[in-house]
Amino acid sequence: MSLRYKVPQDVQREDKILFFITMKQLVILMVTGGISYFLFVQLSKTYILSQVAVGFILLPFILGCAFCFIKIKGLGLTQFFLLNVEHLLLPARRYWQPGSQTLVSSTVDFSMHQKNEKEAAVPKNISAEKIKNLADLIDSGGKAARSND
Fold first, then answer.
1. CB 73 within 8 A of CB 103
2. What's the first-to-final CA gap in the chain, in angstroms?
3. Which residues are registered as beta bridge partners of 75?
4. Fewer beta carbons within 10 angstroms: which end of the chain, N or C?
């Protein structure tokens, strides 16, 4: 029995609406472009605009392009910015989840570091009597420690 419909495999990826632009990027570009256009029309009615003034008028659109297309550490600038704001405002808490392979952090490098010879574990000398006492304690469920007190 075969399936009639193709089931998408990558459901986390946003759909491309116009060429390589997603719907979210298109909305951001339209809003920031509209703001820049509005500023240009309103200010050009009153003032003779220089190139520097036009540069400042285009600043909202340039910021919109940056938030749409720049990626830092594989994250979009919007998500990177929001993670940094969250890092500044919330206390640091980390939760370990079994089976989780991906870690997202904007401040900590989780790359594998090899231990130097200085960081190697120092073996401890523990007597056989201490090991036997510890084994007896574990086997008794802690009752041996209570009877000694």
1. no
2. 71
3. 72
4. N
The sign of the dihedral angle between the CA atoms of 66, 67, 69, 71 is: positive
- Specify the number of domains making up the chain: 1
Distance separating alpha carbons of residues 131 and 129, to the nearest angstrom: 5
- Does residue 76 contact residue 82 with C-beta atoms inside 8 Å? no
Strand 75-76 to strand 71-72: parallel, antiparallel, or no bridges (unpaired)? antiparallel
Report pLDDT digits (tens) over 47-104: 999 999 999 999 999 999 999 999 998 899 989 999 999 888 887 666 666 666 655 5
Angle between helix axes 59-69 and 77-89 (nearest 10 degrees) is 90
Structure tokens at 28: 């951001």
The amino acid sitting at 91 is P
Which helix (H) or strand (E) element contains residue 81? helix 77-89
Residue 141, in any domain of the structure? no
Range of the domain at 38: 15-91
Matching residue, tokens 């929001």: 82
Whether 8 is covered by a domain: the verdict is no
Separation CA 19–CA 22 (nearest Å): 8
